[in-house]
From TrEMBL:
Presence of keyword Transcription regulation: no
Name the UniProt record assigns to this protein: N-acetyltransferase domain-containing protein
UniProt entry tagged with the keyword Nucleus: no
UniProt keyword list: Signal
Alphabetical list of InterPro entries matching this protein: Acyl_CoA_acyltransferase (IPR016181), GNAT_dom (IPR000182)
Signal peptide feature range: 1-22
Gene3D superfamilies associated with the record: 3.40.630.30
Organism: Dacryopinax primogenitus (strain DJM 731) (Brown rot fungus)
Amino acid sequence: MSTNMIRTILHIIVPLLWITECTPSFQHRRRHNKLSHSSVQTAPVSIIVDVPAPEPRLVRYSNPSALLRACLPFDTWHMNIALGLMLQYLVFVGDSEPGPREPKLWFGVWTADQLDLVFVRAHGMGIFCSPVHSSLLFFNWLSTRMHLVASALHTLIVSHTQTSLSSVFGAIALVQAFIPAYAAISGLEVCASVVRETLHTHCPASRVSLDPPNLPEGHEIRVVRLGENETMDGIVKFLQEFSDPHRGPVAAFTLDMTQKRAKFGVWFGDMMLYVIRSEDGEGEEYAGFVRVGRVTGRYAAVSSVFTAPKWRRRGIAEALTRAAVVRLLSQPNNMADIIRPLMPPPQAGDEEAQLKVASVCIFAEKSNVSAQGIYTRVGFGFQERGWEEEGAKSWEECIEMAYAVRQGAM
């Protein structure tokens, strides 16, 4: 074979290999199948076969367990809000299929055997997640998949099978890809202003000490147990104060809703109170609380970190956050019995790793620099002290956008 012919063949092959390497779904498969990727790199190329790329497909799941069985193997910190919420739903509500016009919906978009993204509805809001960092996903790639979601959702809403979508939430890239796709099909546009902007990140076990926080004498962080009715009243008050500033499409929680949230949280051991005993030791005061939860196989979340106004700027929020992270990383996975039947059989010796929380997730309002500083000191990867992982940053920007017109009610 002549030198010129060899150069011509290489000129054709090398760009093709580069294009394959840069495809988002290939990047994700590479992380989960390093052996396969290695064999592709080292195998000699003898012939070029033009194989069409598999088309993405949308799967609608009839209940939470069906979605979880399919998607839990793709558990990453980016997926925590969707998978964690579905596991909580499974525990507290059950596994039944939603009734007519009940705003609950579970979609997965797949390319071959690769999960590309998940869409779940909780009340009027739609939540988007992808197993990979949104910065690694190209807009055109996302648009194709969002068109599938938008088309299926529109069909369900206009047929009165689903109620109207009040808002969408997720990483900015996902939301910005969905909005034009849904507008093209439904004719509905989102409101001009953003409902909320948040940052989502996580704290791996390697970045935090598992020693409990040092507290002043007379101070205690306590896990609330069932039957502590007086303590429950304090938690309900805190939950109402915490949710009250939120003025999005979903109104602040009513007293009844707050009491139910507190009951579920206490029942599952999710509530931790910061307690300060009086100087005479006869009484105590609640200075703040934190919730832990959304536990999946390898990830969990800290949420609703709250300090009573009179006790702020005394390190209580940081102590609560640190205590919650330490608890999640050091104690057995309290969802293990729920998750185990939903996961594929582990390989020998892998079950403990499959059900061991390795990192804790958290959201913070983008404008709340003070909270981000607190969480960063604990070990979370917000902007100023973030890190690079697998070609992306340790945090994602998320937004919620609202719809003013109620589709299906017209």
